[in-house]
Hints:
Blueprint: E1 5-10, H1 15-25, E2 36-41, H2 47-59, E3 65-71, H3 74-77, E4 83-86, H4 98-119, E5 125-128, H5 133-142, E6 152-154, H6 157-171, E7 178-179, E8 182-184, E9 192-194, E10 199-200, E11 203-204, H7 205-209, H8 212-224, H9 226-234, H10 240-255, E12 262-267, E13 279-287, E14 290-293, H11 301-325
Parallel strand pairs: 1-2, 1-4, 2-3, 4-5, 5-6
Antiparallel strand pairs: 7-10, 8-9, 10-11, 12-13, 13-14
Helix pairs in contact: 1-10, 4-5, 4-11, 5-11, 6-8
The chain binds 1,4-dihydronicotinamide adenine dinucleotide.
InterPro entries: L-lactate/malate_DH, Lactate/malate_DH_C, Lactate/malate_DH_N, Lactate_DH/Glyco_Ohase_4_C, Malate_DH_type2, NAD(P)-bd_dom_sf
Domain Lactate/malate dehydrogenase C-terminal: 157-317
EC number: 1.1.1.37
Amino acid sequence: AKSPIRVAVTGAAGQIAYSLLFRIANGDLLGKDQPIILQLLEITPALQAVTGVVMEIDDCAFPLLAGVVITDDPEVAFKDAEIAILVGARPRSKGMERADLLSANAAIFKVQGAALNKVASRDVKVLVVGNPANTNAYIAMKSAPDLPAENFTAMLRLDHNRALSQLAAKAGVPVASLEKLAVWGNHSPTMYPDYRATTTDGASVKAKINDETWNRETFLPTVGKRGAAIIEARGLSSAASAANAAIDHVRDWVLGTDGGWVSMGVPSDGDHGVPEGIIFGVPVTCAGGKYTRVKGIEMDDFSKERLKITLDELIGERDGVAELLK
Ligand code: NAI
């Protein structure tokens, strides 16, 4: 039998975790033959709520679950973790400026990056879900100088999956037939879902849809503002779909994509003029526990414009937290 893998999850009392933890324990993350130890981090006032969630996890009698740790100490939560899914973040409260939100989260991810640096597995794969996800991942990466920078990623997969679903519906084809979608940039409404290269059973989706007005006036805003539309309809932000995307992101990173493209926020290598180190959504393929950026994608004028908008936003966020990282 395989030995258990330690999976750390932060924000364990929150709504995304309420979907995510059960699926991890069920084997959806690392496979049905891989035992798991869950290491759950919360802020002190939420620890009691976590014990309630863990009572429910116990009541599922998951065969793969080999242990659960509950803590408010990042160095306990991240000890020997091979996977760290950082969901917990400070939400925007009433009257909070964007700059305050950035610095409140920078403080959290600085501490958590330093704890990962100190106690996690040297191969820990980090996924940041908590917003602003790209910049939070950047802060954690910068605060963990002894860990490989490429192990810090941000979640663009929910945007990727939202785009796949919209495209499949528009083109009238099954989601499973779609390949080669790219979502570029920041996990924010500025992100650029790009189906210029997308195929359905090998044929161009762009040619099949053949409607650039739909792309610009319907598709891009629908995917970009999907989070807000869900809050409007549900009264709460997307949680089960975010948990599902986190599972997809980590599972594909660990188990591979068989040549298929997925979108991940990863530290830039300078491609497409994105300054090195900025955590930027790009298409990747995964194999052997590593992701590889898809190279050689040409940018037309419209795509260049879209990339610039989302990059400018990320540069602004990076500059906004620079002082805190000193
Ligand atoms: P939530 O508010 O229900 O749960 C967040 C939990 O994190 C709370 O229980 C809170 O106590 C905890 N937390 C706060 N600071 C913490 C810290 N320093 N250490 C450990 N835990 C901490 O929020 P929800 O709905 O679960 O969303 C979590 C985050 O995910 C939010 O920032 C949200 O904006 C983001 N999100 C990101 C998506 C993406 O695609 N990247 C999609 C959907 C949500």
